[in-house]
Design goal:
- With 250 residues, the protein is α/β, with parallel strands linked by helices.
- It has two domains: 2-99 and 211-248, D-Maltodextrin-Binding Protein, domain 2 (3-Layer(aba) Sandwich), CATH 3.40.190; 103-206, 3-Layer(aba) Sandwich (D-Maltodextrin-Binding Protein, domain 2), CATH 3.40.190.
- It contains eleven helices and eleven strands.
- A six-stranded mixed β-sheet has the order 2-1-3-10-4-11. The protein has a five-stranded mixed β-sheet with strand order 7-6-8-5-9, with helices on both faces.
- It is elongated and about 60 Å long.
């Protein structure tokens, strides 16, 4: 029995990595549901640990530029990855656009579907309530949303009614809680929240392409960081992201 116990302990030891590492990831808040699952699967497979900080891409980019310790950055917009790259903080050759998304209009509870075009009477739909969005000058979902509304000629009619949030998940929460009747979020966010209903999808040409670039940061110290970055675009991760409403690009 003692020999069997020693053999079992040895087998378990050999199955674990020689050195369990921690991978620190800064990721856009809209990735949370899918990325949590991808990270959990990778941790179970490798024995390493993934620690993820979620926030608006603008907040994360500024934290990285100011010296926050992170190994991988996943942004919801190319401009914030550009800002980090311009500071020389990404490892050359590791940046790639992993995912795409759609911009949708969501309502609290059940509501009738609408066609989102220049004829949409958005103020009437709001009926005096607020339109929840990410901060329109910095949060990617808010920037895409404002651009879409401007291109359709709808922004001036709702600008005074916009409730701006620090990230897209916070905007989603306002609608789910009934504090705002409508919100503009990503399709993946709406899929992750049963308390809202998608009532319309913004035309793809009403805003810039929604792309999620990922890159290894110069703070990354070991092979586990590179391995997790690679795992973000393997077949299992792609299936998880697709199931959560993302378009797989890489």
């Amino acid at each position: 029995m003692r020999r069997l116990s020693l053999a079992a302990a040895l087998a378990l030891t050999l199955s674990l990595p020689a050195h369990a590492a921690e991978v620190v990831v800064f990721a856009a808040s809209s990735l949370k549901t899918a990325l949590d699952q991808v990270a959990a699967d990778w941790q179970a497979k490798t024995g390493h640990t993934v620690t993820i900080s979620y926030a608006g891409s603008n907040t994360l980019a500024n934290q990285i530029i100011q010296g926050a310790p992170a190994d991988i950055f996943l942004s919801a917009a190319e401009n914030w990855m550009d800002a980090v790259e311009a500071e020389g903080l990404t490892v050359p050759g590791t940046r790639a656009d992993l995912l795409g998304n759609q911009l949708v209009l969501v309502a609290h509870g059940k509501a009738d579907p609408v066609t989102i075009d220049a004829t949409l009477d958005l103020p009437a739909l709001l009926a005096g309530g607020k339109l929840a969005m990410g901060m329109v000058d910095s949060v990617p979902a808010g920037q895409y949303g404002k651009a879409a509304l401007e291109s359709l000629g709808l922004w001036s009619g709702v600008e005074a009614s916009v409730a701006q949030s620090e990230n897209v998940r916070a905007a989603l929460a306002l609608v789910a809680a009934g504090e705002a009747p409508l919100g503009i979020v990503y399709a993946s966010d709406a899929l992750a929240e049963p308390g809202v209903m998608v009532i319309g999808t913004f035309p793809a040409d009403s805003h810039g392409p929604i792309r999620y670039p990922a890159a290894l940061l110069t703070n990354a110290a070991d092979d586990a960081d590179r391995d997790f970055l690679k795992a973000l675009s393997d077949d299992a991760a792609n299936a998880t992201f697709a199931a959560q409403g993302f378009a797989v690009l890489n």
